[in-house]
Amino acid sequence: MNLPPELRRLQRRLERWELEHLREHAAALAAQVEDLEQRLQAAESSADFWWQQVEQLREEMPAGTQLGLTVDGELHVLEHQEN
Fold first, then answer.
1. First CA to last CA distance, the chain
2. Per-residue model confidence as pLDDT tens digits over 16-59
3. pTM of the predicted model, to two decimals?
4. What residues contact residue 3 under an 8 Å CB cut-off, 6+ apart?
5. What does the CA dihedral 32, 38, 43, 49 come to, rounded to 10 degrees?
6. Cα-based distances in Å from 83 to 53, 61, 66, 80
7. What DSSP letter does each residue of 1-70 carry, written as one string?
8. Engineering a disulfide at 3: which of 7, 32, 65, 73 sits with its beta carbon 3.0 to 4.6 angstroms away?
9. What is the per-residue pLDDT for 75?
């Protein structure tokens, strides 16, 4: 399509603005991804630490006891009771 020179210049200008906007958006998304990857790594590290702590506690518990978890997330050692 053969556009007048004014419209071609306007189209090029709009294309440059669009490209700049996409670059800024891509940079913002890249920063967000990096932040989320760091947060995920920290969360996984924390989860591994607490899993190791619970496993160590479980191994050190006397026979006839077991671990219990409340609805609120509290960990308790329970004595085995015969009915």
1. 89
2. 999 999 999 999 999 999 999 999 999 999 999 999 998 999 89
3. 0.64
4. 11
5. 180
6. 31, 22, 16, 10
7. ----HHHHHHHHHHHHHHHHHHHHHHHHHHHHHHHHHHHHHHHHHHHHHHHHHHHHHHHHSPTTEEEEE-
8. 7
9. 86
